[in-house]
Write a structure and sequence with these properties.
By secondary structure, this protein is of the alpha+beta class. Helix content is 53%, strand content 12%. Helix 6 (168-179) runs antiparallel to helix 8, helix 9 (256-277) crosses helix 11 and helix 13 packs antiparallel against helix 14 (390-400). The chain binds adenosine-5'-diphosphate and ligand LNRAV4D5. Adenosine-5'-diphosphate (ADP) binds next to strand 2. This is Methylthioribose kinase. Residues 33-290 form the Aminoglycoside phosphotransferase domain.
Length: 403
């Protein structure tokens, strides 16, 4: 195994030339490389040739990029990310970039360059629509969650997978940022000026904190399936005819509803943000209705496909009972709502914000959009046991949100 060294662009270029056949026959002097990362944790280099041949070299730093060396972080996250993406690409080859090479020692993965796609967050902030996105994400979620669980895997194999994806440091980030910080006066929080009193209300909402404790405990203990672990709008690349899920370094065995809820939470963050992003009211209302339809289709697409897998591919006969399977799906639904609520709350007052809210230029509108995100987040967490179906959720949403 190679000895780790943090790459400069010329190192990433040389590494890509040495470890893939992509640039064979090309004069290395005609290749270029720049660091293009904009995420919170890692370096991302793009190596390219004028002919159009290119690759992405992603390298983990021994610390969190967004904070610096004062926040050390395991390099093992690069192994976890590459191995999780390889499993995802076996299950959903069209929905994950091709991995050309990975090296746990150098904490490097070389993968397909998706520069012909755009990051979903950017596109949604601009109010763009992607016709394939929801069907593709329903498929990605149903297939990765079902086929990595005890419903499908042999019990020895599943336990080996749980061990392979023990990811304590990255899980700790989620445990803190999702379930701890927003509910206390934590120094990591990032609260908009003028929003302090509203944020402080979370710290004293005992009913909410009890429900968040329940969701956190499930995140800590429910090893249901191999989660991607960070399905936010910055982890999805889109094109009109294609969807690709990246950045699986938070992968671990956890509750299925966490991935589904994280994604729905991000659609709802955009829904709230549009209050201040899209000026024309008619256009905004139409776009927001489309987002609600998408959430509806996402859950029904997921539930339909997951149910098909349950009936056709459940291997353990003792798990093959309709009565229990419908209870399982009900539990995933309730978790989905709860984790969607947590995502809305943590992205509004916690450390890691989103452009859907932060980029609203008008301060009053930004605070109003943030308020909507908290109201929806709280309602989803608190009411997740009473909201029986998506019609109930959408009715609650329309009732609570400012149009
Ligand atoms: N396969 C890829 N193709 C093109 N650009 C990529 C690719 N992977 C990452 N990027 C770019 O790098 C950015 C950060 O990548 P990401 O995997 O989210 O890093 P981090 O782990 O630091 O969050 C993305 O927003 C995107 O701009
Ligand atoms: C200090 S990590 C904060 C936040 O960032 C991660 O996302 P990404 O690296 O894709 O930007 C993850 O959502 C973490 O919660």
């Amino acid at each position: 195994m190679a000895v780790y060294k943090t790459f400069q662009p010329q190192d990433a270029l040389a590494y890509a030339v040495a470890h893939t056949s992509l640039f064979e026959g090309l004069d290395p002097a005609t290749l270029s490389c720049s660091e293009i990362g904009d995420g919170n944790l890692n370096l991302v280099f793009k190596v390219s040739h004028p002919s159009g041949t290119s690759a992405i070299v992603k390298q983990a730093l021994p610390y969190a990029r967004c904070v610096g060396e004062s926040w050390p972080l395991t390099l093992d996250r690069a192994r976890i990310e590459a191995e999780a993406m390889l499993i995802e690409s076996e299950l959903c080859p069209a929905l994950v970039p091709t991995i050309y090479h990975y090296d746990a020692g150098m904490a490097v993965t070389i993968m397909e360059d998706l520069s012909d796609h755009v990051i979903l967050r950017q596109a949604m902030v601009a109010g763009e629509h992607f016709p394939r996105l929801i069907e593709d994400m329903a498929r990605f979620l149903a297939d990765t969650l079902f086929f990595t669980s005890d419903l499908y895997l042999d019990q020895q194999q599943k336990k080996a997978r749980v061990a392979q994806f023990i990811n304590p440091e990255l899980c700790k980030i989620t445990e803190d940022l999702f379930f701890l910080d927003p509910y206390c006066d934590h120094e990591r929080n990032n609260v908009y000026p003028g929003f302090e009193t509203r944020a402080a209300a979370l710290w004293h909402n005992e009913a909410l904190k009890a429900e968040v404790a329940e969701l956190k405990f499930r995140f800590l203990t429910e090893a249901q399936a191999l989660l991607h672990g960070d399905v936010h709008a910055g982890s999805i690349f889109v094109r009109q005819d294609s969807t690709k899920v990246i950045d699986a370094e938070f992968a671990y065995y956890g509750p299925m509803g966490f991935d589904i809820g994280s994604f729905i939470g991000n659609l709802l963050l955009n829904f709230c943000g549009q209050w201040g992003l899209m000026a024309a009211e008619d256009q905004r209302n139409a776009y927001r209705s489309g987002l609600l339809e998408s959430i509806d289709q996402l859950w029904s697409g997921f539930a339909e496909r997951f149910s098909e897998h349950l009936s056709q591919s459940t291997r353990d006969p003792s798990l093959n009972t309709l009565r229990w399977q419908s209870r399982l799906l009900r539990g995933i639904w309730q978790d989905t709502l709860g984790y969607a609520g947590c995502e809305l709350i943590r992205r509004t007052v916690g450390l890691a914000h989103v452009k859907d809210l932060d980029s609203i230029a008008d301060e009053q509108r930004r605070l109003q959009a943030a308020e909507q995100a908290l109201i929806l987040g709280e309602a989803l967490v608190l009411q997740r046991h009473e909201l029986d179906n998506m019609a109930d959720v959408l009715a609650m949403l329309v009732d609570k949100v400012r149009y």
